[in-house]
């Protein structure tokens, strides 16, 4: 089978590997679609994503879906040909968390994630024609949800987790700053959870077009001098840019809530934060998700349309070109998809 394997900075290859055989408790998937994420780009460009650095080759990809090809021993509840996606996280160790964060497994300190170099050996991802996956990580797709849509359940789960950090969005005004794939999905998730007016802001007109297609009522193009709205009840900061924090805090209403979705740098960075205190803003973080992938699948089954997010599709053997398009801010890309089947 073919797989997309990163060996180091700027070195990604399409390699032939043995087709896996599912062990006890595993399901073999014939994969069909994968979505390129920022971490995939980072491994390709830098040989690392955050603090996770490559020490040996890694199969990329944690957003993927396909069909059941074979069942390992003792696996029940699935059938061959069934369309499925995957929860990419598996806890390492006893899984015990302090009582104050009980159940918030996204905060567990040791997690193997598909397509991640956080552990040695690394955890290969799903940008391959086949992948054996523990049955407990597999999620069936609802009727009518394609495997291409199913590959977007993981990033939609990230967005739903972020939206869920605010107890009740119904009827409330929302600002989403930063309209890359996650920001645009936050727009869709907020709308799905009953938000009132949703405003989206970004520097790129192409990203704003996607956000509007995903449900934004209004867009603000920061690159041409559009300012952020004032006194917004709930703000989602999805750009991860420290320079955006000052304007975003100023846009948040007194006593309002700011949810930090975009990853901020792990090193010192200048930011204007005075309004956090004087406006008594509640600033909370949002990291990955717990089981919101199930919520994402229900939303897709309910008809939530994520197709406007997809701007480019490439066959597996053009993975490096796909990564380059996804990484290029001038390409106009949002979510870039890889067709993983042999027919691609």
Describe this structure in words.
With 344 residues, this protein is of the alpha/beta class. It folds into two domains: 205 residues, Medium-chain alcohol dehydrogenases, catalytic domain (Quinone Oxidoreductase, Chain A, domain 1); 120 residues, NAD(P)-binding Rossmann-like Domain (Rossmann fold, 3-Layer(aba) Sandwich). Helices cover 22% and strands 28% of the residues. The protein is built from nine helices and 20 strands. The strands form five sheets. Strands 3, 7, 8, 11, 12, 19 and 20 form a seven-stranded mixed β-sheet that branches. Helix 4 packs parallel to helix 5. The longest helix has 12 residues. It is globular and about 60 Å long. The two termini are 13 Å apart. The mean pLDDT is 97.
What is shown here, in short?
This is Theronine dehydrogenase. Keywords: Metal-binding, Oxidoreductase, Zinc. This protein is an alpha/beta fold and 344 residues long.
Q: What would you say the CATH architecture of the largest domain is?
A: Alpha-Beta Complex
Integer average pLDDT: 97
Class from secondary-structure proportions: alpha/beta
Low-confidence stretches: none
The level of helicity is 10-25%
What gross morphology would you assign? globular
The number of helical runs is: 9
Largest sheet: 7 strands, mixed
C-alpha end-to-end distance: 13 Å
Helices and strands, in order, run as: EEEHEEEEEEEEEHHEHEHEEHEHEHEHE
Tally of separate domains: 2
CATH class descriptor of the largest domain: Alpha Beta
Query: Compute the gyration radius: what is it?
Result: 20 Å
Assess the beta-strand content as a share of residues: 25-35%
CATH homology group of the largest domain: Medium-chain alcohol dehydrogenases, catalytic domain
In CATH, the topology of the largest domain is named: Quinone Oxidoreductase, Chain A, domain 1
Family: Belongs to the zinc-containing alcohol dehydrogenase family.
Organism: Streptomyces mutabilis
InterPro entries: ADH-like_C (IPR013149), ADH-like_N (IPR013154), ADH_Zn_CS (IPR002328), ER (IPR020843), GroES-like_sf (IPR011032), NAD(P)-bd_dom_sf (IPR036291)
Cofactor: Zn(2+)
């Amino acid at each position: 089978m073919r797989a997309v394997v990163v060996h180091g900075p700027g070195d990604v290859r399409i390699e032939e590997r043995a087709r896996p055989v599912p062990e006890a408790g595993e399901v073999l998937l014939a994969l069909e679609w994968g979505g390129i994420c920022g971490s995939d780009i980072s491994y390709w460009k830098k040989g690392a994503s955050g603090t996770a650095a490559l020490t040996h080759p890694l199969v990329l990809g944690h957003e993927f879906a396909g069909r059941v090809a074979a069942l390992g021993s003792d696996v029940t509840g699935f059938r061959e040909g069934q369309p499925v996606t995957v929860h990419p996280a598996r806890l390492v160790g006893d899984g015990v968390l302090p009582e104050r964060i009980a159940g918030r497994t996204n905060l567990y300190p040791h997690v193997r994630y598909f397509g991640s170099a956080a552990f040695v050996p690394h955890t290969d991802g799903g940008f391959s024609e086949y992948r054996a996956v523990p049955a407990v990580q597999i999620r069936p797709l609802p009727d009518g949800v394609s495997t291409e849509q199913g590959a977007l359940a993981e990033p939609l789960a990230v967005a739903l987790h972020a939206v869920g950090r605010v107890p009740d969005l119904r009827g409330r005004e929302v600002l989403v700053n930063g309209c890359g794939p996650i920001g645009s999905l936050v727009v869709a998730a907020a709308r799905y959870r009953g938000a009132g007016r949703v405003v989206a802001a970004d520097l790129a007109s192409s990203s704003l077009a996607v956000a509007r297609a995903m449900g934004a009522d209004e867009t603000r193009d920061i690159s041409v001098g559009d300012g952020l709205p004032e006194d917004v009840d709930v703000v989602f900061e999805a750009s991860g840019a420290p320079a955006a924090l000052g304007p975003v805090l100023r846009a948040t209403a007194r006593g309002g809530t700011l949810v930090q979705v975009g990853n901020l740098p792990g090193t010192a960075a200048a930011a204007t934060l005075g309004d956090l205190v004087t406006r008594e803003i509640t600033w909370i973080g949002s990291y990955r998700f717990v089981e919101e992938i199930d919520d994402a699948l229900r939303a897709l089954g309910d008809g939530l349309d994520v197709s406007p997010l997809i701007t480019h599709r490439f066959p597996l053997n053009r993975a490096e070109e796909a990564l380059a398009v996804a990484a290029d801010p001038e390409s106009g890309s949002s979510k870039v998809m890889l067709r993983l089947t042999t027919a691609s």
